[in-house]
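User: Here's a protein and a ligand (adenosine monophosphate). What would the complex look like?
Assistant: Let me lay out the input and then the predicted complex.
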Amino acid sequence: MSLWIPFQNSYAQLPARFFTRQSAIPVSAPRLIRFNRALAEDLGITADDDLELALVFSGNALPTGASPLAQVYAGHQFGGFSPQLGDGRALLLGEVVDRQERRHDIQLKGSGPTPYSRMGDGRAWLGPVLREYLVSEAMHKLGLPTTRALAAVATGERVYREAGALPGAVLTRVAASHLRVGTFQYFAARRDIDGLRALYDYTVARHYPKAEGPAHLLAKVIRAQARLVAGWLSVGFIHGVMNTDNTAISGETIDYGPCAFLDQYHPQTVFSSIDAHGRYAYGNQAHVIVWNMAQFATALVPLMPDQDDAIAEFTALVHAMPDQIETEWRRAFGRKIGIAEATAQDAAMVGDLLARMAAGRADFTNTFRGLIDGTARDQFLDRAAFDAWERGWRARIAREADPEGVMRAANPAYIPRNHRIEQMIEAAVAGDYAPFERLLAVLARPYQDQPGADDLRHPPEPSEVVRATFCGT
Ligand code: AMP
Ligand code: MG
């Protein structure tokens, strides 16, 4: 065996009620689609045999040192509380510690049913596996905290979904951890204070070793999430299913189900087919994350000796979060218009541009990137509306040291556009992985102009527009 994963498992040592030990259910004909060699190297994983990779990352072969388990958690889904969820189609194989001493989960997704599968089959089809692989890697290259993709394997089996029989696949996901707001909610809802304390101790040791007490942990998670969501907004990302079980304590983006990037800018944009009321629309994300942090705070209260004091202290922390998001948003969007450290007045200038973009049906990514080369105005139905804004903006950036450099680092030329993802999936289902490979290659350098990749900058033609994305199930 040439594949070596240096497992050092810690979650498997937590109390038994944190998980169910479970093996992957073998698949009939695993075939490697993609292995992320650069990431593997960072993680100290050595591999050279594709057959072996296919066996291990489909779940057919258990690598030495793995202790596979399904994690239990709870969560608010679209605002309603489910007291017990869990890995219904995923397995934690174990953890590795990289050269920078950072611990990572190695998780199979689509590896078969577990006790938490409820009505599901425990499987994933090729489309969502390739979507998550591509979008999570693109998010990383855009500079946002995110889970990563280590491998994609075709199972050789069919999975049955509304659309019919589809090719099955397994994704291997790497995460700082899979601890979620919902993990805390699981123990809090059961009044399992010993479990909650064990989870708290584990979380602090793993992610926030300097945290001194639950209030401090809450403050640190709020800070990480404020930064994350401002980052999403700055690249036009819509997560699509910001349930509390999909909010990671680490501050990473997790769970690429019905996610999508904006083409035309409009704050009410929603792609997810299951988000009928727009709860997780682009412009709601900054509100929803505060609500999710309030749920996290609630789950931490039982850890405190004086609960009334705790509620007052935690409430103040949650109420301070919108200001933190605003500060992060201002910094991120200030850079998008070439201002290194934006003031409140600069933020108003950004707000004015966004309002004109919404009215002018302007493409989000191409408008900001177009500020660099003067093509932004072409994005607007009413170009005069842009020109009126541009005069004030030019006067303002004349006072900046290097507006172009700042904008080049803040405004990607390439994002994983939804219509391209759908076309890529359609090709892959037909056996052609070239579009997947090409998108991956271009999105590996999103801030650099790349000759021959102009077509990937275009918003969809009317016939290409994707109106809905579907959960990864
Ligand atoms: P998600 O929408 O991916 O966050 O999933 C919500 C819950 O449904 C999680 O507990 C998943 O493990 C579970 N789930 C989603 N898809 C499946 C599936 N195909 N089989 C079993 N469980 C699933
Ligand atoms: Mg989930």
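Summary: The chain has a mean pLDDT of 97.
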